[in-house]
Amino acid sequence: MIYALMAVCFLIGSIPTGLLIAKSKGLDLRKVGSGNIGATNVLRALGRKEAILTLLGDIGKGAMAVALAKAFSFDVMDAGLAGLAAILGHNFSIFLKLKGGKGVATSLGVLLVYSPFVGLCTIILWLLTAKLTRYSSLSALVAFGLLPLSFYLIDPVQEKIMIAVFITVMLYIRHIANIQRLIKGEESRIGLKG
């Protein structure tokens, strides 16, 4: 049963929210800015309203995956696996030939249902880092780099900490190019074109 749930959640995660919103405006998001399908690139390419819609859509995918698992009374580990499946779907969308985003917003959606206080803590860490640095990627790296510790301090369930480690590793892998640009001082800041 868990495999069927994960397949459904992967499909949900695969829906390319930002790409669909940009397409409705006559724009191929993959050909502008960073080429990423997430909210940060939508903000640069289209503006705040479209970025917020993208953010909410991507958060909703992760939240829906865990909510589905909880609705069907799956245990904590299986609910986490459902969330991971949605994140993987976003990162490797079947609708985009296994290409996709970086999973930040979808991961936040997973956290907000899986462990609401940890999710809130992660959002606060992201916002604080973004306020100080204006780097979306660095904000994600800081907030999710601290995710296993956040679980350990706030919601110390072994299975949840394991899921947190997987989320962190996946996010860091998807941000390798950003890390390289940050080191070189070439990373774009939030709100700037390009």
Q: What's this, in brief?
A:
With 194 residues, the chain is mostly helical. It contains eleven helices and no strands.
Produce the secondary structure layout.
Blueprint: H1 2-14, H2 17-24, H3 39-45, H4 48-71, H5 76-91, H6 104-114, H7 116-133, H8 136-145, H9 147-154, H10 158-174, H11 176-184
Provide the descriptors you would attach to this structure in a database record.
194 residues; 0% strand; mainly alpha; 11 helices
Describe the structure.
The structure is a single chain. The chain is mainly alpha-helical and 194 residues long. It has one domain (2-184). Helices cover 73% and strands 0% of the residues. It contains eleven helices and no strands. Helix 1 packs parallel to helix 5, helix 4 packs antiparallel against helix 5 (76-91) and helix 5 (76-91) runs parallel beside helix 10. The longest helix has 24 residues, at 48-71.
